[in-house]
Write a structure and sequence with these properties.
The complex is a heterodimer of chains A (113) and B (110).
Chain A lengths: L3 E4 L2 E4 L5 E7 L5 E7 L5 E9 L2 E4 L6 E3 L9 E3 L8 E8 L7 E3 L3 E5 L1
Parallel strand pairs in A: 2-11
Antiparallel strand pairs in A: 1-3, 3-8, 4-5, 4-9, 5-6, 7-8, 9-10, 9-11
Chain B lengths: L3 E3 L4 E4 L4 E7 L6 E7 L6 E6 L4 E3 L2 E6 L4 E6 L8 E8 L6 E3 L3 E6 L1
Parallel strand pairs in B: 2-11
Antiparallel strand pairs in B: 1-3, 3-8, 4-5, 4-9, 6-7, 7-8, 9-10, 9-11
The chains are: A mainly beta (113), B mainly beta (110).
């Protein structure tokens, strides 16, 4: 089955700890994206990548880091510098053609206590 | 000004009603447009792409007005199951950046 997988679904961490969220896709998509969603809000772009070993900051990159060492994988690290990390994190992937839709993983709910 | 703007709603309509949402975008270089649907605490899923000539999929019609920089979604004969948040999405072809609006919430009542 082709798709995009995020893990874990729920994650609890203590304040001040770094945490890495996993995102893997087997759709052979070049572009991958990370979004953050707060309750009742829209999706805000954190980072995106068009190709292996290259990525760009989105609108709210501060306190986050990513890597793109493989086409299939785009992990997101939430660092201790992120002041309010509790949120719903969504990963997406897409072909790079303009009209291609994006597919989402099921998301990771991160709670920092 | 936000790059993609939507009326947050909620739009509260009876079953069978017709409802329309608009979405405006600020970057005239935007090339591709989509409507996604998001159910509570779930990931967004594609509802339909928006083509320059407009397109229809059953009860749903999407239109694009490049001159005025807005897209629209029309839902006819609303069903209870249409209750969700509808997200407008703009894709920049040069950078492949995907920008989401904040969503419009629809509530369809019996």
């Amino acid at each position: 089955d082709g798709g995009i997988t995020q893990s874990p679904k729920y994650l609890f961490r203590k304040e001040g700890q770094n945490v890495t969220l996993s995102c893997e896709q087997n759709l052979n998509h070049d572009a991958m994206y990370w979004y953050r969603q707060d309750p009742g809000q829209g999706l805000r772009l954190i980072y995106y990548s068009q190709i292996v070993n290259d990525f760009q900051k989105g609108d709210i990159a501060e306190g986050y880091s990513v890597s793109r060492e493989k086409k299939e994988s785009f992990p997101l690290t939430v660092t201790s510098a992120q002041k309010n990390p509790t949120a719903f994190y969504l990963c997406a992937s897409s072909l790079i053609q303009g009209t291609a839709e994006a597919f989402f993983g099921q998301g990771t709910r991160l709670t920092v206590v | 000004r936000k790059e993609v703007e939507q009326d947050p709603g909620p739009f509260n309509v009876p079953e069978g009603a017709t409802v329309a949402f608009n979405c405006t975008y600020s970057n005239s270089a935007s090339q591709s447009f989509f409507w996604y649907r998001q159910d509570c605490r779930k990931e967004p899923k594609l509802l339909m792409s928006v083509y320059s000539s407009g397109n229809e999929d059953g009860r749903f019609t999407a239109q694009l007005n490049r001159a005025s920089q807005y897209i629209s979604l029309l839902i006819r004969d609303s069903k209870l199951s249409d209750s969700a948040t509808y997200l407008c999405v703009v894709k920049m072809d040069s950078s492949y950046k995907l920008i989401f609006g904040s969503g419009t919430r629809l509530l369809v009542r019996p």
